[in-house]
Automatic annotation (TrEMBL), chain A:
This is Uncharacterized protein. It comes from the Bacteria. It comes from Jiangella mangrovi.
Automatic annotation (TrEMBL), chain B:
This is Uncharacterized protein. InterPro entries: DUF6772 (IPR046663). It comes from Jiangella mangrovi.
Length: 107, 294
């Protein structure tokens, strides 16, 4: 039986500027997938997976996702090492984001 | 007895042996009650962070590993003073009887990196300034008796006070855990979710003294812990942490003045860690055993 797990990394989160989610250890997982359930968004937002060797220092990994409206957005991640987080920023100007961030992991 | 259980002292019926090389074993994030709208979750219950399966890694040595095997269960706070991470395991009572929780654990603050990052306290090569970065961790339960009454036992290792002094001892709580029902009639807590106030903790007799911190935040030494509760009497019985055995039988446990519906035979176990500085705090569990004498 393959181990799998769903973590709510941000629950009912509200943001108006750039942010990164808390570092999350996922070295046991062979694949990961972010889901962003966006309840409301103003402005164009860009979210990007980041990976790290130590949970302190981060670099981008994989494709970025852009959105400017409510909806469900997703991106898959592989070959990520031991740590994952999601970084997000508004492309320009005033923006607001109300979203739930899920990380689903599978062995 | 299997070799895995040989390092534990369970009561006669083992309810669960949670080896975190095999997943989170039912230790899930605690989230407060709501009516379907997450805006109705009380703030103190809104962001208690998901479990992590951890190789106990550090920037200087890489993965530490668990006491046995590769993975430990990790609770991690945000790097924000006053933030708490909490996991819960939800069971029910097959009888009102003795129940015991055992684990091998380690509690550490996140390491700071760089030249002079601990300059606020200095470093003499013995007492490590990072020891002041570890706040507190707490064992607690939530029990619904067969007659409908409800209580929580809570035992906290307070490493530092909320204002940052080194305290290093075990404490028990003296007030009820604020409920949604209590807050709806105007009782607003000023502490974390356990008590009405951060002042509502008293020292456990014989519970004062440090754990083995081991000098720096990137060394992990596993501690044995055994906590026994008598769910028939509604009392703590005993807490053992390595060589220290604390008799808890005379400690008062606050009971709600009215019954709660839907909780008959509830038996929840909770673990949490709280930071008192803008530094992440971690609680690691190698494994744990829950046993009962029914």
């Amino acid at each position: 039986m393959r181990v799998s797990h769903t973590a709510v990394i941000e629950r009912n989160g509200r943001f108006d500027t750039h942010f990164a989610t808390e570092p999350y250890e996922a070295g046991w997982a062979g694949e990961a997938r972010w889901f962003l359930r966006v309840a409301s968004a103003t402005g164009m937002w860009v979210v990007q997976t980041e990976i790290s060797p130590d949970g302190h220092h981060w670099c981008p990994h994989g494709e970025a996702v852009r959105f400017d409206a409510p909806g469900l957005y997703t991106v898959g991640v592989t070959q990520f090492g031991g740590w994952l987080r999601l970084a997000a920023h508004p492309e320009q100007g005033e923006a607001h984001l109300h979203a739930q961030v899920y990380l689903t992991l599978k062995e | 007895m299997t070799i895995e259980l040989a390092r534990y002292n369970p009561l006669r019926r083992v309810l669960s042996y949670d080896d975190f090389d095999r997943g989170v074993n039912g230790w899930c994030e605690l989230c407060g009650n709501h009516d379907g709208d997450l805006d109705t979750v009380r703030p103190s219950f809104g962001d208690l962070r998901p479990p992590q399966l951890s190789t106990v890694p550090f920037f200087d040595i890489g993965s530490h590993g668990a006491m046995t095997g590769t993975y430990a269960l990790k609770l991690a706070t945000r790097p924000r003073a006053g933030h708490t991470a909490c996991l819960i395991k939800r069971l029910t009572l097959a009888d009102e009887a003795l129940v015991q929780f055992e684990t091998y654990f380690a509690a550490k603050p996140e390491a700071r990196q760089g030249n002079g990052v601990y300059a606020d306290r200095g470093w003499d090569g013995n007492e490590d300034p990072s020891e002041y970065d570890l706040g507190a961790f707490t064992l607690s339960n939530d029990i619904g008796r067969f007659d409908g009454s409800r209580y929580h036992c809570a035992l906290r290792y307070q490493n530092t006070s909320v204002d940052g002094r080194l305290v290093q001892g075990w404490y028990y709580k003296t007030s009820l855990q604020p409920t949604t029902k209590m807050q709806l009639v105007g009782q607003i807590p000023n502490g974390d979710f356990h008590t009405l106030s951060d002042d509502d903790w008293q020292p456990v007799p014989g519970g004062q003294g440090p754990l083995c911190f081991n000098e720096v935040p990137t060394k992990v030494n596993w501690h044995y812990l055994r906590w026994q509760v008598d769910t028939k009497a509604g009392r703590n019985v005993e807490l053992q942490v390595n060589d220290r055995v604390m008799d808890l039988r005379d400690i008062d446990v606050p009971v709600y003045p009215h019954p709660y519906t839907g909780l008959r035979g509830l038996f929840n176990l909770l673990l949490d860690v709280r930071t008192h500085r803008d530094v992440r705090n971690f609680l690691f569990l190698d494994s744990c055993v829950i046993s009962a004498d029914w």
